[in-house]
Amino acid sequence: MKILLLGYSNLAKRRIIPSLKKIKNLSFDIASASSVPINNGHKVWYTNYIDALNKSDADIVYISLVNSLHFFYANKSISLGKHVIVDKPLALNNTQILKLIARSKKKKILLAEALTFNYHRQFLYLKNAIKRNNPITNIIMKFNIPKPRNKTKIALYKFTGREYSGSKDRGSSIS
What distance lies between CA 74 and its chain's CA centroid? Predict the structure, then answer.
């Protein structure tokens, strides 16, 4: 099996590539329009995303680009018959998401959104809120990096000499 990594984001460098290297019988190509090629164990380094999609013999495309490019390259990958995994968010709006789902179903292609918090405790809160507020007409969600616990705050203070206030806006609302 082979994966084409579109984008050379920090997440790709820190998490995706090290994980790919651990999988036996898996090879990968990288496409980056902005980074200088370095040896990461990849087979081919492309500097153009469209060329990479057209030339790579990858079975799966992992898209780790800026959010505004997710829909375009996911759609292009599906049209070429490649399975697709996209860093969150899958697309910028519901219309784009529905188009991707419809095209992937029609072509029998895997379409997945990579989540880092797929079992976060807020999902239990959301599940219970859905039960209490049936039918739901609107959901507004905000993602923030959680405020560190006390031990982390102390370590940050010792390291930086400054108090860490963290994120104050962690709200979600359901109506």
Answer: 12
Sequence-separated (6 or more) residues with CB below 8 Å from residue 90: 70, 74, 96, 97, 100, 111, 113
**In a shared domain, residues 109 and 129:** no
> What is the total count of domains within the chain?
2
Asked whether residue 106 falls in the same domain as residue 139, the answer is no
User: CA–CA separation, 149 vs 151, rounded Å?
Assistant: 6
Tell me the per-residue pLDDT of 75-92, one tens digit each, with 9 for 90 and over. Answer: 999 999 999 999 989 999
Q: What is the pTM of this model?
A: 0.69
Query: What pLDDT does 142 receive?
Result: 66
Long-range CB contacts for residues 17-22, cutoff 8 Å, separation at least 24: 17/41, 17/42
- Same-domain pairing of 82 and 103: yes
Q: At CB < 8 A and 24+ separation, what contacts does 165-168 make? A: none
Residues 159 and 94 in one domain: no
